[in-house]
Amino acid sequence: MAIDETPFSSGSSETSRGMFCLRLRLWLQPASQVWAASRQNVHKLASLQKATMMPPRKLQGILYPFTDLEAYLDRSVDTTHFQLFHPSVEDMVQSEKLFSSSPSHKIDYYISAERMDHVPVLQQPEVCFIGRSNVGKSSLIRALFALTPEVEVRVSKTPGHTKKMNFFRVGKAFTVVDMPGYGHRAPKDFVDMVEPYLYTRKNLVRTFLLVDGSVGLQKADLIALEMCEDIKHPYVMLVTKIDKCGHGTLLTNLMNLQDVVKTQTSSCFPQPFLLSSLQFRGIHLLRCFICHLTGSIRLTNTCHT
Ligand SMILES: Nc1nc2c(ncn2[C@@H]2O[C@H](COP(=O)(O)OP(=O)(O)OP(=O)(O)O)[C@@H](O)[C@H]2O)c(=O)[nH]1
Ligand SMILES: [Mg+2]
């Protein structure tokens, strides 16, 4: 079945949005009923199938969070970079399957490591999540794995909760690593632990650097950014907790971040990803991006990564 290249281009009519939802439901029907059957107590927005029950405009904001902000931007602002990675919903459906556990594709917590010599040698591509304590790394990983609630990812209001590098296996496809945070109440050996990993990990395909969208870039974030630049390994900025502030604050913080990325970085992907783990906004898009980066899916749309 064919789909529009930009399923929710801004300014699309209610009719086309309605058609889109209908097509999406049709897609999701035959295969997904099987893999959705065993999911109890899963957040209703964790799966695309359930998300499509939302009104079209709301669904658009969940799948492509930037479209919600676009209306508040001056027309003179070039928004190309904010939508470089803009997969079709069909691609998101494919990615969702990778984030769903099955007997032939097990998703599980694998191991925790405190030092580099505890880190397992793995062949599959790996992605890791770094950022200040409390920025929402573990919550984000928990949202990514929400379709497999048996995989326990611990989160806490108290900064400095994650003390070790926690490895999660996604079948044979890739590994996800939750890192301890830096800054306030960071584990003492953060530098001994995380830096060597980032500098030497051979199978690391992407580092995700999280910043809190409700407070914007902090001094500690700029230090982390400098470290990522020094490593010269590709990384991506993720803007978390977008539900916590109004459009004005978020846009100011986002524009400031975009300016820093543009003027001070060379290894950073130009598109920051907007996320709310609480409301599942941007989670489907990020799942798809991870699957794309790790070579786990082939996109139907061309994109510029
Ligand atoms: N409103 C809102 N709160 C969030 C979001 N993501 C995380 N939080 C909250 O932020 C706090 C910290 O979340 P964690 O995921 O534990 O943060 P972390 O980055 O893993 O923290 P450390 O392990 O200490 O480095 C918790 O109280 C979460 O509920 C979000 O998208 N929106
Ligand atoms: Mg954590």
Cα shape: globular
What summary fits the major beta sheet?
A: 7 strands, mixed
**How many β-strand stretches?**
7
- What does the average pLDDT come to? 86
Number of domains: 1
Radius of gyration: 19 Å
Ligand inventory reads: guanosine-5'-triphosphate, magnesium ion
CATH topology type = Rossmann fold
Q: Which structural class matches the secondary elements?
A: alpha/beta
The sequence of SSEs as H and E is HHHHHEEHEEHEHEHEH
Quickly count the helices: 10
| Helix proportion | 25-40%
In the CATH scheme, the class would be Alpha Beta
Distance between the termini: 25 Å
Q: Proportion of β residues?
A: 5-15%
Q: CATH homologous superfamily - what is it?
A: P-loop containing nucleotide triphosphate hydrolases
How would you describe what is shown here?
The N terminus is likely disordered. The chain contains ten helices and seven strands. Strands 1-3-4-2-5-6-7 form a seven-stranded mixed β-sheet, sandwiched between helices. The chain is α/β, with parallel strands linked by helices. Bound molecules: guanosine-5'-triphosphate (GTP) and magnesium ion (MG). The site of guanosine-5'-triphosphate has 24 residues, from helix 6. GO terms for molecular function: GTP binding; metal ion binding. Keywords: GTP-binding, Magnesium, Metal-binding, Nucleotide-binding. Its cofactor is Mg(2+).
Helix and strand arrangement:
Elements (H helix, E strand, L loop, with lengths): L13 H23 L11 H4 L4 H8 L2 H5 L18 H10 L8 E7 L12 E6 L5 H8 L20 E6 L3 E5 L11 H11 L3 E9 L6 H13 L3 E6 L6 H18 L8 E2 L8 H11 L12
Parallel strand pairs: 2-4, 2-5, 5-6, 6-7
Antiparallel strand pairs: 1-3, 3-4
The structure holds guanosine-5'-triphosphate and magnesium ion (MG).
InterPro entries: EngB_GTPase, G_ENGB_dom, GTP-bd, GTP-bd_ribosome_bio_YsxC
Protein name: GTP-binding protein 8
Family: Belongs to the TRAFAC class TrmE-Era-EngA-EngB-Septin-like GTPase superfamily. EngB GTPase family.
